[in-house]
Batch of 4 targets.
Target 1
Amino acid sequence: MADIDYKQKFTESDTYKLAVSKGIDISGFTVNSEDDYNKAVETLKNLIKENEATDDAGKQPQENDSLQKEPDKKEEETAKQERDTMQVDNQEVAKQEPQPTLSWIEEKKQFWAKYAADNALSADFEKPEEEQAPVYCKLSKGEETSGIVSYFAPNAAKISKDSKLKTYQGLVKDAVRNDLSITFGDSLNDHQKLMLYAAVLSSPDKYKNGDAIEATNPPALDKALLESEAFKNLDADAQKVLQDEYNRRQQELQKQIDERTKQLQDKLNALRANLSPEQKALRDAKELDREKIMAARLGIAPHTTTYKAGPKKGEERKVEKDAALFDNKGNLNEKRISKEMFEHLKKTYGSEK
């Protein structure tokens, strides 16, 4: 029977190799007999178990750690991320390079084919010879063209000047579903800008995180816009969208003004309640003077008062019409004074002229 080299048997054992792979120190083992071998293997097995238990404990999430990290995770989820934009123009966007892959091209065609079907329109993707855009889509309803949309890149679109509101609304829908804001290109004429803005305002779509549609460089929705020729030449459906939004904003603004006015009046009433008769008389005279000054600044009635402070304190002051209260067309500057206040002052002091 050949002699057994227990030291070699130990170093070739699976237990020894596993211990070495786990970085366990095996320098203190002396194996010269079968008994030494068995004890050494058993000891290594116990060391391996202890090592694995330590590793597992290190991998378990600590309660305190998880509580500390959770707010960071929430901050990442709620932090607003800047999104890319969809550039909309009526001409080729030269700075955009067509993408080398066809995947986005087919995706755009699928979107517009479905959008057309959902809105009782037909979509024609056959490009004219002069069209250079990778994606071309002509929407029609019967014999009437509803508009033409072309894409030079996934986020660069051109829209024809005769496009209807439904076509603009499709552009907006496509941008939102791709998490893109909408940029009003400088090459859009006034009519196109208003149509695109009407599409943005009328869209029920929101981004995946619930945000409302972001628009860059939209027209200013004010009274001057509603009186412009561009607005008057819009389709009736686009006019209604813009007019309704203007009315809604005016109502909201008036609500805020009414709330602030009520708060101010409540404060004034509270102050008056604690005034003596003499103090009330002085305050009434001061408020009357203030109203007459404003009426004079509006050109309703002349008024002479005295300077209340400064180097001219006590001297007479003739109040004159203030051009800043009117625009360059002579209309009331409602950012400085409301039409309601103007009418009140005119009715109260107009007869003093």
Target 2
Amino acid sequence: MLMPKESRDLRKTMKRLGIFLLIVFLFDVFICFLFYRYTELNGVLIGFIIICITAVLYLLFLLICARIDKKKKERLEKSGKKDPFTKE
């Protein structure tokens, strides 16, 4: 059974991941269309390029999320306020 804090973190992570996947999927479709339509590259090579682009974007996404969470935690500690949802 998940604790309330773990459940909240899981929902936040799933929400962020869902938004990321939607945006990246649309971007990948656009890039794939451009490659397929205007270049003479093989389909497998286009797929490999799309996978590489997606991997780099996911790593950037993870870095941005980590920084956002770190800044939020620092700001919460600096203000001296306690998170109302934690029981610590």
Target 3
Amino acid sequence: MAKMEEKAKVGRPRLADPELIKDSWYRVAASLSIVLMLVMGGLGILTAQITTSKGLDNAKASVVNVKKKNVRVIPAKTAETRIINVDGTVTRIIPAK
């Protein structure tokens, strides 16, 4: 009788065993959970800052509250007037001298 030879494996070999695949999925899940916690914490901090400052209405500034330190006042004869319409167009009026 002839001696039996084993066939050589043909095709693409397996790149990872099941244990390595399982470990990699655990790492992916842990990374995604950390990212999710960071995003939720950031949103919580932003929400807390907006609610404690009573919304974005306090972000508006007023020129009246500016201290008049080193401020040069331009006379009305040489200053231009800007008219801003509702649609956002700006009209500038320069007074004649």
Target 4
Amino acid sequence: MKKFALFFTVFLFFAFLAAEDVKTGEYDFGDITVTLFEEREPEPEPEPEPEKEPEKEENQSCGCDVSREPDKKPEKFFFQASAGVLTGINFNLAANFDFGFLVFHSPAGNNLYLGFETDFRYAMKNWMVDDRDDYNIFEIPFQAHLTVDFKNKNPFVPYLSMWFSLGAELLLESEADSPRDSKKFKGARAAVAWGTGLNLVLKNGVVFKTGLEGYKGMYPVLLFALGYRF
């Protein structure tokens, strides 16, 4: 009789489960304890993460993107032409031509060029060193030229350039005793030629040239010129 009652109880319990949803938990039926567990749907498999693009290598010292700043090789040769004035003890018009060949390039981006230069200068009058009222002189120097380009962080002025030159020049002089007299050619002679200064090399190749040049090989005059580096 006891077994029959137990069987009947279990039968009613499963009939109850079929009729409605039953909460999970434990249920006591006399000598039997039934534990119900909530059926769970299988969890979806995780989708694979998209592959990340390799990060660009950055320079740890400056925090800059190395891939965007490739090491640009310097020009092995440059030609620079400029025109300007020489002023100080007199006023000269000048045309300058520089030629440079690359002999050294440092990892920091600095460049050393060796070459030569030639100028054509015309002086109309010398107020401080000549007593003549009317005086003309042509100077044609030929000089060895050294240029050092220092890499600059300014993107608009990528290089600051120091230059030095030394050589000889040909002087062609003419003078007159008064403005009404015809000019007399005094002849040609040689003199020492020298110069030093600073160039601002702009991004587009334009060069602003400044410095000191030797007039007649002796008197320093200021140079201001504007040119282009090819």
